[in-house]
């Protein structure tokens, strides 16, 4: 009889372990930035640097959304203007986010870097419509502050 009671108590202890702990939610850090009134997110693991006040050297014979290149600590990095890439008007005041895309460094000119947030992966939903923006957006979700984040797919940003 005593052995049965020990087993029952052991099982109750195991149940307490499961009920006391909240279920683990899988999250990923995203850098949130704004461009033309929309909020975008890039996976933090892709972000290598945030830059301001860099002289961009113009390059001839490149797509119009490639504003030029910068020299960042001895590395030449092409700078893409996300506004031009999405068919919007360029803005003169901007900051840059340097990201790693398949081993290559690329700069993205954005209006403003907002914040770093943890996003539950289950909350990222597919984009419902087909548009130019969707071709570079792989998902969307609602942030804790109520804004909608469009998940920018940096690899698709480079393809026409």
Number of helices: 3
Which sequence of SSEs, written as H and E, runs from N to C?
HEEEEEHEEEEEH
Q: Which strands sit side by side, in order, in the main sheet?
A: 8-1-2-10-9
| Span between termini | 74 Å
Low-confidence stretches: 7-11
CA gyration radius, whole angstroms: 22 Å
Mean of the pLDDT scores?
A: 83
Helix content: 10-25%
List how many beta strands DSSP finds. 10
Structural class: alpha+beta
- Can you tell me the overall shape? globular
Largest sheet: 5 strands, mixed
- Beta-strand proportion: 35-45%
Structure, explained:
- 17% of the residues lie in helices and 42% in strands.
- It is built from three helices and ten strands, in the order αβββββαβββββα.
- The strands form two sheets. It has a five-stranded mixed beta sheet. It has a five-stranded mixed beta sheet with strand order 3-6-7-5-4.
- A hairpin with a 2-residue loop joins β6 and β7.
- It is globular and about 55 Å long.
- The termini are far apart.
- Residues 7-11 have low confidence and may be disordered.
């Amino acid at each position: 009889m005593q052995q049965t009671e020990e087993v029952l108590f052991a099982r109750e202890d195991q149940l307490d372990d499961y009920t006391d702990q909240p279920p683990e939610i899988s999250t990923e850090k995203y850098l949130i930035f704004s461009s033309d009134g929309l909020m975008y997110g890039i996976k933090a693991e892709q972000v290598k640097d945030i830059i301001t006040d860099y002289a961009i050297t113009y390059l001839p014979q490149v797509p119009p959304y490639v504003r030029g290149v910068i020299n960042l600590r001895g590395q030449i990095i092409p700078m893409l203007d996300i506004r031009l890439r999405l068919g919007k008007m360029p803005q003169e005041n901007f900051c840059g986010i340097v990201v790693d895309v398949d081993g290559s460094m690329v700069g993205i000119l954005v209006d403003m870097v907002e914040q770093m947030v943890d996003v539950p992966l289950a909350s990222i939903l597919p984009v419902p419509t087909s548009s130019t923006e969707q071709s570079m957006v792989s998902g969307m979700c609602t942030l804790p502050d109520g804004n909608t984040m469009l998940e920018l797919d940096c690899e698709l940003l480079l393809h026409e």
